[in-house]
Amino acid sequence: MVEKNIQLIIALFLIVGAIAFLGTPQPSGNPLSEGSALCVGSNSCPGDPVKTGKSNFRQAPELIGLSGFINTDKSISLAALRGKVVIVDFWTYSCINCIRTIPYLNSWHEKYAGKGLVIIGVHSPEFEFEKNYQNVKSAVEKFNIKYPVVQDNDFATWRSYNNRYWPHKFLIDPQGYIRYDHIGEGGYEETETKIVELLNERDSSLEIENAKTTLDQNTDFSKIRTPELYLGYEFARAPLGNEEGFSPGRIVSYSLPDSFVPNLVYLEGKWENSADYMRLSSPKGKVVLLFSAKNVNIVAGSPTGSKVIPLLERLPLGANEKGTDVYFVDGNFSVDVKGQRLYNVVSLPDYSLKRLELDVEGEGFELYTFTFG
């Protein structure tokens, strides 16, 4: 009888322990593997609810584990900003979805900073090169960002917010509660309405009117048929089109096939297979892709500089087809790839299926992703 009672006590202890474990927030895994670019449409993507606990809203976690400060200093904290309306915006500088939200953030900073709004860009890097302070600082300057940006290189703040997406905005009231959040692009009118609502709640004497920010974002996401394509073997969501496939850590000589499947990347030349990019290991190489979108971007870099000549349907780009990073040099429209960032290669009037070929000159060219608009 005593032995049975002991067994029963042990069993109850294990059950209670399991319940306690399941009720404790568990650390998230690699944020890159949890859906970095899942939110590319005009609506919010499904995410973790932020309304919990007292007053149906949870207290915003403090900014922690920061390693770099732009347009601010190390003293920045949510505690010091109590009494203000704060947007915490998770972003990374090579993410096209983040880039397209920046003009709205810049506009809100300009319109409402003097009325009690503080925007904090929490830069959580998708790729290793995005941990570099100078790279982030250059991007902040390029995008004309005037609000504070902090580097969250170790994802400490990212994890404290249970975040899984770029971009993701959290709107915090003067008492420090998260009152609204939005994942991905879009929702700009709704977000601005919430900003104005909290500013008026903070100081009703201001009587701020909601003059909604409208910017030209000429993209119909429902017509884009090609998803973001990763070239690193660790994060790739689709195989290479070449029969040689990925070969982690090795240099492979790739050959183009006679026919191509849409939405798969094909390579020609010698390429080193790395975890988050493919690096050209021969003087010249080629990349081929059949895509359906208006705009094609590449996240790329080259330590010594490389030239990329885009061809559309095997023909040189026309003046009305070139992206914003394409320039006419030596008789060709080409992209001068140096720093590690996003390059806009093609800009078209429609979303029809097209063949894109990138003729690459310059050993060391690194290709991370294709993104589309």
What does this structure look like?
The chain contains 5 helices and 19 strands. The strands form 2 sheets. Strands 7, 8, 9, 10, 11, 12, 13, 14, 15, 16, 17, 18 and 19 form a 13-stranded antiparallel sheet that branches. A 6-stranded mixed sheet has the order 1-4-3-2-5-6, with helices on one face. The termini are far apart. With 373 residues, the protein is α+β, with helices and mostly antiparallel strands. It folds into 2 domains: 31-206, Glutaredoxin (3-Layer(aba) Sandwich), CATH 3.40.30; 225-372, Jelly Rolls (Sandwich), CATH 2.60.120.
Globular, elongated, flat, extended or rod-shaped: what is the shape?
elongated
CATH hierarchy, class of the largest domain: Alpha Beta
Question: What is the element string, with H for helices and E for strands?
Answer: HEEHEHEHEEHEEEEEEEEEEEEE
Give me the Rg, rounded.
24 Å
Overall pLDDT: 86
Which stretches of 5+ consecutive residues score pLDDT under 50?
A: 1-54
CATH fold naming of the largest domain:
Glutaredoxin
- Major pleated sheet: 13 strands, antiparallel
- Beta-strand content: 25-35%
Helix/sheet category: alpha+beta
**Portion of residues in helices?**
10-25%
Please give the count of helices: 5
Reported CATH architecture of the largest domain: 3-Layer(aba) Sandwich
Fourth CATH level, the homologous superfamily of the largest domain: Glutaredoxin
Q: How far is it from the N-terminal to the C-terminal residue, by CA? A: 71 Å
Total domain count: 2
